[in-house]
Records
---
Amino acid sequence: MFVRRRLTLFAMTVAAAPLAVGACTAGPRSAVKQAEAAPPSVTVTPADRARDVPISAEVGTKVSNGRVTGVKLTDDKGRPVPAQAREDGSGWVPDAPLANSRTYTAEVTVSGDSGKTATRKTTFTTMARSTKPAVTSELYFQDKQTYGTAMPVVLGFDPPIPPEARADVQRRLFVRTSPSQPGTWSWMSDGKQAEYRAPDRWKPGTTISVRSALEGLPIGKEAVGDSDRVATAKVGRQVSLDIDNTTKQMTVYQDGKVLRKLPVSLGKPSTPSSSGTMVIMEKHEHTTFDTRGEPDGGYVVDVDDAQRLTWGGEFIHSAPWSEGEQGYNNTSHGCTNVSAAGADWLMGVTQVGDLVTVKGTEVQLQPGNGFTAWNVGWNEFAKGSALPVPAGLKPTQSPTPHPGAVAGGSAPAPTPTRSNSGG
């Protein structure tokens, strides 16, 4: 995550606070101790005169006996390059990819306990435009939107990110929240999808800012990242849906209180709905389900008020043709059927990012089949991070697992390809 302070990388002068001297302070002894203190030093990367530096480069620092008090990064025309500091102080990440085949100069100043300062300068040249194939990334988190409290930040990759490259990619994925609610990224086992969430659902009113800073990043030996992607969105009210196959009822909650119950018809035994904890991914007032070429498919049907739950094509949607069965029998091809009036009402209540839990069906939700960050507990989710997760991150409470939750985490994830099979 980004540190909250923003740096425009120009030279900064930082004055050390004067030492308070009282009547009983031994001035000469203090001076001796100050003189004996080791002077500060700093190593800066990229190395001086380095060439063919990726445009994803950042100014890295390794400091001894001091702290960074000034950073200056300029291009070959002397213009400052704005950047943000990493939370651990290990470097500064430019706000945008550097330009190809350009020369940059970085100057870093550190101050030590001795009162002395040290400055190091490095000049490097970026590489020409890469001819390696790009890994396409898609950020399923849009700018200026309002999401539900369970909305994870989700990135999809094509081709998948190999295990040995995931740590480098993850280090370039930044999430900032206000108020602060830190979390971690977690990778699907096949590397096609990474999701970010906190231990608890987002607090209503939270602002989430995301940057996927992958343009020009070397990914493995044969590929580079395709693009930088940024988005800032808000978290809205807390809404959740519980769907029980035993009772054939959907219970709609807002802020923990029941708003309404709706009868449903789920997937028939040959095409069952998935049990698990998922998230509303998309909402469509009108869409078409086209299952030609799919198993048990072959039909094309227009539907209203459809809300996607999985990549595999499970939706909540209006199904006036099954209203006589809703609350009693399962007749769908895997979707949650509700009445036309109920579906219309539901569209006005829900948001993309709302939590949906289905329980009691014949099959379990597979990891990566949709936004599945909440289908496992926090500890299991954090195991999917390619970088160390701070030990202090944990849920504020340890509630009984939601009845719709499943263990998951080990089964291969399906390809994140949108299917409008529906039904």
---
Amino acid sequence: MTDFMPIGGRGSSLIRRVQGVAGQVLMRQELELRFGYGKILPWVRRIYDDDGEALLAVAGPQAVMLRADALPHAASDYSHVGEFMVEAGQTVDMQLHAFSSHSVPPPAIDVGVALQATSNYWTYWSSNYLRPGNYDAEVERSLLVLRALTHEGTGGIVAAPTTSLPEQFGGERNWDYRYCWLRDAALTLEAMMTHGFQQEALLWRNWLLRAVAGDPHDLQIMYGVAGERELPERVLDHLPGYEGSAPVRVGNGAVTQYQGDVIGEVMVALAKLRNHGVHEDHFSWPLQRNMLLFVENNINRKDHGIWEMRGEKRDFTHSRVMMWAAMDCGVRAVQEHGLDGPAGRWAEIRDGLRTEILERGFNSEINSFTQTYGRTEVDASLLVLPQVGFLAYDDERILGTVSRLERDLLDGAGLLMRYRTEVCLDGLEPGEHPFLACSFWLVGQYARTGRVAEAQMLMDRLVGFGNDLGLFSEEYDTSGKRMAGNYPQAFSHLALIRAADALNRYGQ
């Protein structure tokens, strides 16, 4: 049985091809269509056109059509069911098309031609992948996932295609990830550029620039796939949630949050694109200057942090470092690439941030950077500090931080938690599973500081948490041995790529 979404079709389609290999197999199919997140029952009727018989379901502006060699004919309990026999050498095709109800229904697709074209497209696309060495299959799969999470028209990449798959089974840590975070887009740009996909990197850059265009004071951390700004969060009370994990949410309230690290993520990615020889145009560099103005105007503002804390705003060390990184990128753009800008003022802000971070974000008594100023709790995002050049990977203060992270945040299976939810108040009930990206960051840290065997061991363990398709969720439940959180998760796949790159470069 082969399921695929055809490339270049009109509207959205899902195709299933069932092929008989040997003997006979009795297949049962069931079609149960609901719109409005399961709330709206469509009107279903049988129609006939030039392509034969089909089932058409309509609910307001939306419509779905099923064309099949073996249509389910029996209506039962607001669903359609049927059985068909498949023999050796026989092929049965089914086509499910979604389209606007006011439009003419899409014609039937030649499934054999569409399957070959789709296979050729993805095979050709992945053939451009620059293979670094070890973990080629995992990196290639991750790049394919990032490409598949990308909107074909706009270039926006969603964090995940799902909403409300729980981080905590039976709990309330359930979020809608079907939106485009600037952080994810920036990291995707970097991953694509590093592995030979220059055109895709430019596609993401252009989406980024369109999304943030406008008044720098209006900058958001996330947008819709076309750059939409209004993403209000609401609860779907009629749905019980996955394994009773309520509430089920649509939209994301974090859109209104201020996260001080985001501009730094974007500026670092665009700087790497610039270092790869991509020239700034009349649009991209002025917009980056606007983003630096946004950082400057918010230099003393507390934030919600990279993990979108829904509690009190604080001075998160990681956020302050990423503000430092943003300013550093601006200074280097002027000094090393001849672009225009107040490099002197940016350098003054950058240097002031560095002094502040070292004084207030590092606790000498525990020999570690801390999650927020004035406290002793640590956070896995501190592993990003050397990634952006704030300090060397083998700096004693970074090594002390790693030691503290290992002591406080490693779970019984050797995976790294984001932070201790029972201590670091994030506005929700305590309890979650290890965030996979954090452990991938630890792989890179180990590889770059001579702990290659540990890096390799952790990497192999993490890779083993993917499913049979090489897909990763946001978190992993080590006790229940199953995925947790939205899936597949772009951030996990991005971190996997970075970890593999570090091992291939430093683990030889």
---
Amino acid sequence: MRMVDRLVPGVTAVTPHARYYALHGLVAAHAEAGGLDASAARTLLRRAEVALAAVSFAHHPEGLEWLPRAHGVDAMAGRLRAGAVAVGEAEVPGKGGYVRNSWGFWGPYAGSEVALGVLGPGPMPVPGPRLDAVAVRDGLGGLLELAAEETLHVAELASLGDRLCVCAGGDRADGAWLADLMCGAGSEERGSRAEARRQTIRLLARVVGERPVAHFTRDVGRVFAFGDFLTTDPVTSGIDAAAAWRGVVLRNYSVGAWRRLWSWLVARVEGLMPVDELADRFADEMPPGMTVDAFLSSLPATRSRTGAPLPAELELRRSGEALPLAELRVLAVGARRVDELDGRARDAFLGQRGVELGPEWVGRRLDEARPLQVRDVARRLTYELVARSQRIALAKARRRSDGSLWLPTRLHERDGLLYRTSQEGRGDVGLRLDQLGSVLATCGVLRRDDERWSVTGDWRARLD
């Protein structure tokens, strides 16, 4: 996640909509021009976000397959389907409003907006050095008028969707401004975070332009990780960030393997269970009698004849093997890649050196255990993972007001017995490619036709 933040600053896993950058800039500019205090600015922002959600619902009542719903639509679903939203009621923070946070959805976007220069730092939205107040007023000014209304009628908002929906920024002035801000890089920005973002956008746009892409993380991520496109294409081969993205995506397969294994282990805990029994359950999923040496020899090929990474991780996850065995193989593939990658790709793949559970750590453990059976390794890993989870939980423990200790963990250990309070997540860590793609789409850089993405107008030439 630290590496991804360096490669695509200004977009996070919770910022999928370009128009919120513009809306928060609009509120900041309006508050400054009108001398609004924090309380008045907060109310304006919340009412404007309610209006944006209502218009977006009116434009696409069933939503769009490629774009998350506008923030707050789900919380206001009952009101919106009934046909009317009382703005004063919907904007109030709390359970009955469109969001609990007093500053609406500014919080998730604030860091990105400051990084981009849309806003300046502070306890309330203030214009930043890169904000174009004229462009955001031209594109989204109508939301301020809607925010002043007492009631918004969904049927009357449908005609405004082409101008004010979250999907419509690409055809408006605010979208053009944000596209230039996201994608542009002047000479003063060489080596900066803005240049890193531009390189990432150029990579994504080039893949979209040259390969069939329906889903950014899945399709673009695989091109980043595997094959020789990045090194042989005349555009991507000259982009410094390409190698870093290769390392990041490949490392994410190993991170995902650990998450899946840990989720599987926690799900096996029933009632009060001895750690030994959990270790046995993991071991029972391994091939009987197989040594670690044979296990490593059975891994699929990880490099082509040209030295490009082959999709061994994908092959293993499609193999039909039981999850624990397949994911342990994925970890072993990641360990093998330590000696196959070089340069910036290897640096990004390894990240912080010497960390527990990292590819180098996995490689050492497997190499030392070559004469042993894989079942023995599974048992050892169970003990190590359980102990690690307890160390992390204790490090993050907090004392409650009643004196009791709160542990941030779903798996608890007491006197050698384990019990769980809920299931663990098993999804992959987000690489922000989906969010970057949707932001670029809603500010006019990309478009989607027939379930395939493409680069719009002159943006392809500008990004090549």
